[in-house]
């Protein structure tokens, strides 16, 4: 079962959708070109158009939710799985195991590992590899028809050792992508966590600094108040001293009389 994360970032969904629209557009244009040049039949091209129409549906829903700032992990997984199936189906229509573009699922594995988790990337890598393996074995045993590409001979991909080496290469490619992206994503997440901790500590220091400054300000105000009070006391004392002097003078005058 493909894991569903607790917190799916809207930025990742938007990046995924932008990448998806770009790839869908490229496949659509390539299919038109191949139909016009006769590289593939119109029937094969029609299947590609149908497949592209299917993968567009969940993407439109995700686009609608993304505009509202909402993410939906199960729907995103459905969209990614449909993307993977569509890519492999299109590759099957264009030569199947004979097609040199069987590295394409790597991009979906990359996206899954990036926007979800390392485990999700491994799950998609395993799913992609199993589908490619099944497609190759079914074509090899002629249980499904082989649709040749560029009228190339079948001998090279019907060789058992070649097929084993080919599948081993796809296995390494898919899982290396999942491991690499997963490791980089974890590293980026750790650094983001450290940055958040630094920011939090910095904010605490700033709050402490603000608190200390406020205490200093209050202390200064208190000192000013006490200084003002002290000045009033000194003025009062000076006045009393003057009165004492005046009284002393009056007493001296009375003594003289």
Structure write-up:
The chain is an all-alpha fold and 257 residues long. Mean pLDDT is 84; it is low at 1-6. The protein contains 6 helices and no strands. The chain has one domain (10-202). Helix content is 80%, strand content 0%. The N and C termini lie far apart (120 Å). The protein has helices at residues 10-37, 42-67, 73-93, 105-115, 118-140, 160-256.
Question: What structural keywords apply?
Answer:
6 helices; disordered N terminus; mainly alpha; 257 residues
Task: Give a short overview.
This protein is an all-alpha fold. It is built from six helices and no strands.
Write the layout of secondary structure elements.
Elements: H1 10-37, H2 42-67, H3 73-93, H4 105-115, H5 118-140, H6 160-256
Helix pairs in contact: 1-2, 2-3, 3-5, 4-5, 4-6, 5-6
Could you estimate the helical fraction of the residues in percent? Answer: over 70%
> What is the total number of structural domains?
1
Secondary-structure element order, N to C: HHHHHH
Indicate the mean pLDDT: 84
Query: What is the 3D form?
Result: rod-shaped
Distance between the termini: 120 Å
Q: Which sheet architecture does the biggest sheet show?
A: none
Q: Let me know the number of strands.
A: 0
Total helices: the number is 6
Query: What would you call the structural class?
Result: mainly alpha
């Amino acid at each position: 079962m493909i894991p569903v994360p607790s917190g799916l970032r809207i930025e990742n969904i938007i990046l995924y959708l932008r990448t998806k629209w770009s790839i869908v557009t490229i496949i659509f244009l390539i299919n038109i070109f191949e139909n016009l040049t006769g590289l593939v039949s119109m029937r094969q091209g029609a299947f590609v158009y149908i497949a592209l129409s299917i993968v567009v549906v969940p993407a439109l829903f995700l686009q609608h939710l993304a505009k509202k700032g909402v993410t939906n992990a199960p729907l995103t997984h459905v969209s990614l799985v449909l993307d993977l199936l569509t890519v492999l189906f299109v590759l099957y229509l264009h030569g199947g195991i004979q097609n040199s573009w069987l590295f394409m699922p790597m991009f979906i594995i990359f996206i899954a590992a990036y926007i979800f988790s390392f485990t999700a990337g491994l799950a998609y890598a395993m799913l992609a590899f199993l589908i490619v393996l099944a497609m190759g074995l079914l074509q090899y045993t002629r249980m499904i028809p082989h649709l040749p590409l560029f009228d190339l001979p079948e001998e090279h991909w019907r060789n058992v050792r070649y097929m084993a080496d080919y599948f081993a290469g796809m296995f390494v490619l898919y899982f290396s992508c999942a491991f690499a992206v997963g490791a980089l994503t974890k590293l980026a997440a750790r650094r983001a966590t450290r940055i958040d901790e630094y920011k939090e500590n910095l904010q605490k220091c700033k709050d402490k600094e603000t608190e200390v400054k406020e205490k200093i300000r209050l202390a200064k105000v208190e000192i000013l108040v006490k200084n003002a009070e002290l000045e009033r006391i000194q003025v009062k004392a000076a006045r009393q001293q003057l009165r004492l002097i005046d009284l002393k003078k009056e007493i001296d005058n009375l003594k003289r009389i």
